[in-house]
Amino acid sequence: MIVCIPSDKNSLDSKVSNVFARCNYFIFFNTENSNVEIVDNSYKDSQSGAGVQATQLVIQKKAKAVIAKSVGPNAERILFGSGIKIYKAVDGTVKDNIEKLIENKLEEVSH
Asked: What kind of fold does domain 2-82+93-106 have according to CATH?
């Protein structure tokens, strides 16, 4: 499964960003083969629509889940509508949150 995590820096050892659509990077992690793809968030400085554009990227990358501290209402609606699960990130690194997801220790956001 491909998971998307918004990040402040371009590393698994960086903190999970406090924001989703306006984060610096999106880290896509494949839980089946541990492949990592880091994408610079070109939408972070958009005047409007950053949430919609960010979710389109998540869908395009075929992610099945997002781990985030918070997701705006537009992004949440689109993610849920696309069948993408949202998990509440805990304090720590991107890597910590991926490990907790694999261990089923993250809270799933309900809609």
From this structure: Nucleotidyltransferase; domain 5 (3.30.420)
